[in-house]
Predict the 3D structure of the following.
Amino acid sequence: MKLNEEKKAYVEPQITMFALAGDCPILAGSPPVKTTPIVVPPTEDDDDTNLVPEN
């Protein structure tokens, strides 16, 4: 690859592209997750209801 050595007043982006032909195992997706998420309800917390201002 030949680089242009001229001085420029702006930043020229350098882009490298790769082309993949055929099936590629690198691009395979993650396996499906076999769990069922659950939501745990919050517990009541009375410790922080009586706040005292610092100043």
DSSP finds no helices and no strands in the chain.
